[in-house]
Amino acid sequence: EVQLVESGGGLVQPGGSLRLSCETSGFTFASSDMLWVRQAPGKGPEWVSGIDRSGGKTYYADSVKDRFNISSDNAANTLYLQMNSLKPEDTAVYYCHAPGPDFWGQGTQVTVSS
Predict the structure, then answer these.
(1) Which residues are CB-neighbours of 102 under 8 A, at least 6 positions away?
(2) Overall average pLDDT of the 79-90 stretch
(3) What confidence score (pLDDT) does residue 14 get?
(4) What is the mean pLDDT of the segment spanning 6-10?
(5) Where are the beta strands (DSSP E) in the chain?
(6) Looking only at Cα atoms, what is the longest distance across the chain?
(7) Do residues 72 and 97 touch, judged by C-beta distance below 8 A?
(8) How far are the Cα atoms of 5, 34, 71, 82 from residue 77, in angstroms, in the given order?
(9) Rounded to whole angstroms, how far apart are CA atoms 17 and 67?
(10) CA distance linking residue 81 with residue 104, whole number of Å
């Protein structure tokens, strides 16, 4: 059974930090490209960051560049997203996504508000 379980969301003040985790099982995580995708209220999905396994590269949306960092612990089959200098516009449900097989987690809510 394929599972992607996000955690680490919550309420944080502007300028704060959160670290999201996505624990996976049931597929070959270490060789799967992975994405973080978010969806804000009333808006469509927006990809935030990703890992390209073939080239070993990471990439970021302009809106989060230099603030967010994606990483992967292949031994633990876990994807991370370190989010720093959070802004109210980062408020969204964050999902981890394996685009190849189209696997999604259930999402974790991030709310940035004073």
Answers:
(1) none
(2) 98
(3) 98
(4) 98
(5) 3-7, 10-12, 18-25, 34-39, 45-52, 57-60, 68-73, 78-83, 92-98, 103-104, 108-112
(6) 41
(7) no
(8) 11, 11, 11, 17
(9) 9
(10) 15
Q: What is the DSSP letter of 52?
A: E
Q: Looking at 35-39, 56-60, 79-83, 108-112, which range is the least confident one?
A: 56-60
Encoding tokens for residue 72? 């992967």
Per-residue pLDDT at 26 exceeds 90: yes
Least confident of 48-57, 80-89, 105-114: 48-57
Tokens read off for 111: 């709310």
Q: 29-34, long-range: CB within 8 Å, 24+ apart, which pairs? A: 29/72, 29/74, 29/77, 29/79, 29/98, 30/72, 30/74, 30/77, 32/98, 32/100, 32/101, 33/98, 33/99, 33/100, 34/70, 34/72, 34/79, 34/96, 34/97, 34/98
Give the span between the Cα atoms of 18 and 81, in whole angstroms: 8
